[in-house]
């Protein structure tokens, strides 16, 4: 009976760990996405200002 209870706790712990890991991965992907958006936006701004300086559209 004790072993059964211990295994149940381990399963719960593993499930929780897995959930935490998935949450971390999601958070990491979200940050990565936001950084990519910012970088692409900055590049766009730089190219636009560069075009404006050269007088081309």
Describe what you observe in this structure.
- The structure is a single chain.
- With 57 residues, the protein is mainly α.
- It has 1 helix and no strands.
- The chain is rod-shaped.
Throw out a few tags for this protein.
single chain, mainly alpha, 93% helix, rod-shaped, transmembrane, membrane, transmembrane helix
Could you give a quick summary of the protein structure above?
The protein has 57 residues and is mostly helical. Helix content is 93%, strand content 0%.
Give a topology summary:
Layout: H1 2-54
Keywords: Membrane, Transmembrane, Transmembrane helix
Transmembrane segments: 23-41
Instruction: Tally the beta strands.
Output: 0
What shape does the CA trace take?
rod-shaped
* Tally of contiguous helical segments: 1
What Rg is obtained from the alpha carbons, in whole angstroms? 24 Å
Tell me the strand percentage band. under 5%
**Arithmetic mean of pLDDT:** 81
Task: Write down the oligomeric state.
Answer: single chain
Q: How do the helices and strands follow one another from N- to C-terminus?
A: H
Largest sheet: none
Distance between the termini: 76 Å
Helix/strand-derived class? mainly alpha
Roughly how much helix do the residues carry, as a percent range? over 70%
Low-confidence stretches: none
Keywords: Membrane, Transmembrane, Transmembrane helix
Transmembrane segments: 23-41
């Amino acid at each position: 009976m004790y072993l059964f209870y211990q295994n149940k706790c381990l399963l719960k712990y593993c499930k929780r760990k897995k959930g935490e890991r998935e949450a971390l991965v999601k958070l990491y992907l979200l940050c990565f996405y936001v950084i990519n958006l910012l970088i692409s936006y900055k590049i766009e701004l730089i190219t636009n200002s560069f075009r404006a300086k050269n007088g081309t559209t």
